[in-house]
Amino acid sequence: MKGKIIAVVGVIYVILSVFVTKFLLDRNDYGVFETNDNYYVSDKTIDEYSNGSLVKFAKMDDYSSLVNEKVYYFNEGKQLKSATLGAYDKDEKVFTIESTNYNVENLLGKPSNGYILIGAILSFLTTKVFYLLFIIIPVVFLLIYEIYLLSIYIRGGKNRKEANDEKKAGKN
Q1: Domain check: are 16 and 83 in the same one?
Q2: Would you put residue 33 in left (φ > 0), alpha (ψ -120 to 50) or beta?
Q3: Are residues 40 and 61 in contact, defined by beta-carbon separation less than 8 angstroms?
Q4: In this structure, how many other beta carbons lie within 10 angstroms of the beta carbon of residue 71?
């Protein structure tokens, strides 16, 4: 029973570690999780969703359909802002908001879905302190423990061989 509990905890730990690591590695320059088709914002406030929600933005090839609609974008200071999209130039990959041109990489678009409370949990899981205390340090301790077990096995192997040699010598 104890072995099964340890196995389940180990599997959950590995899945959590992989998920958190993947989430951290796939963040762009603005701290937004980016997949092939979507952006996910977890630690910013989006007006339509409660604080702590994980908000999904669909990536688009052409944002022309969003002209004169409220969109979310990152300004020069990498702050998440919302405003009405003034113009979008697909060829130049530039959009205009309040007479200022921005690169299309700064544009998130309109939120398509939100997951309540998951954003707060994800924000906690992806902090440096959590990653250090619950991912890095346990893995280092496991590595040290494995090296310790290997050294005991190597030392114990020599002692067993000597004991077997003595037994054989005693029989003769």
Answers
A1: yes
A2: beta
A3: no
A4: 22
DSSP reduced 3-state for 91: coil
> Domain check: are 30 and 112 in the same one?
yes
Closest CA to 119 of 37, 36, 57, 29: 57
Does 136 lie in the same domain as 113?
no
Predicted confidence (pLDDT) per residue in 29-44, tens digit: 888 999 889 999 987 7
Is-contact 90 62, C-beta < 8 A? yes
To the nearest whole number, what is the mean pLDDT of the chain? 87
Residues 64-109: tens digit of each pLDDT: 899 999 999 998 888 889 999 999 998 888 999 988 999 988 999 9
Task: Verify that 91 and 138 share a domain, yes or no.
Answer: no
Overall number of domains in the chain? 2
pTM of the predicted structure, to 2 decimals: 0.74
Q: How many CA atoms lie within 13 A of 172 on its CB side?
A: 5
96, 103, 153 from 93: Cα distances, Å: 10, 6, 62
Instruction: Give the bridge partners for 33, in sequence order.
Output: 27, 40
Closest among 112, 117, 124 to 23, alpha carbons compared = 124
134 and 112 in a common domain: no
Same domain? 133 vs 117: no
Co-location of 114 and 144 in the same domain: no
Q: Which domain holds residue 168?
A: 127-172
